[in-house]
């Protein structure tokens, strides 16, 4: 039973998924800090205080919803412009380089080289 558990844990995709979740959590903190500490104050400096939580429509706290929507849009824009666009550019450049430089043909095996030498020798004899 423990061997099966060990095999399950050591399977490649489980380890990859665990690493992705950990990196994703850390990246989430970085993006959250970027939004709350850098972008939101910049938006506030440009257009006044970026806090809509005081907005109410009767008993409905409409401002909290607006804050959540604005936060989502800012996070989505930050991820898009700071991660997606640069990664697309890198992938485009890598694909372009791969297309420009086709791989060299592999070296033929020794048997093929020897057979070619024999053929050349036979062709050169009268």
From TrEMBL:
Transmembrane segments: 12-32, 65-85
Family assignment from sequence similarity: Belongs to the MscL family.
PANTHER family in alphabetical order: LARGE-CONDUCTANCE MECHANOSENSITIVE CHANNEL, MECHANOSENSITIVE CHANNEL MSCL
Compartment(s) where it occurs, according to its Swiss-Prot or TrEMBL record: Cell membrane
InterPro entries recorded: Mechanosensitive_channel_CS (IPR019823), MS_channel (IPR001185), MSC/AndL (IPR037673), MscL_channel (IPR036019)
Name of the protein in its database record: Large-conductance mechanosensitive channel
Quaternary state and interactors: Homopentamer.
Predominant localisation class: membrane
Superkingdom of this protein's organism: Bacteria
Job of this protein: Channel that opens in response to stretch forces in the membrane lipid bilayer. May participate in the regulation of osmotic pressure changes within the cell.
Keywords annotated in UniProt: Cell membrane, Ion channel, Ion transport, Membrane, Transmembrane, Transmembrane helix, Transport
GO molecular function, one term: mechanosensitive monoatomic ion channel activity
Membrane topology term: Multi-pass membrane protein
A Pfam family it matches: MscL
């Amino acid at each position: 039973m423990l061997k099966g558990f060990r095999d399950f844990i050591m399977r490649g995709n489980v380890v990859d998924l665990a690493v992705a979740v950990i990196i994703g959590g850390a990246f989430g903190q970085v993006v959250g800090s970027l939004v709350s500490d850098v972008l939101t104050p910049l938006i506030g400096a440009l257009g006044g205080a970026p806090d809509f939580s005081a907005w109410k429509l009767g008993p409905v706290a409409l401002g909290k919803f607006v804050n959540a929507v604005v936060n989502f849009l800012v996070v989505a824009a930050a991820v898009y412009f700071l991660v997606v666009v640069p990664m697309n550019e890198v992938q485009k450049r890598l694909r372009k380089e791969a297309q420009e430089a086709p791989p060299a043909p592999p070296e033929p095996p020794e048997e093929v080289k020897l057979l070619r030498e024999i053929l050349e020798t036979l062709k050169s004899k009268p």
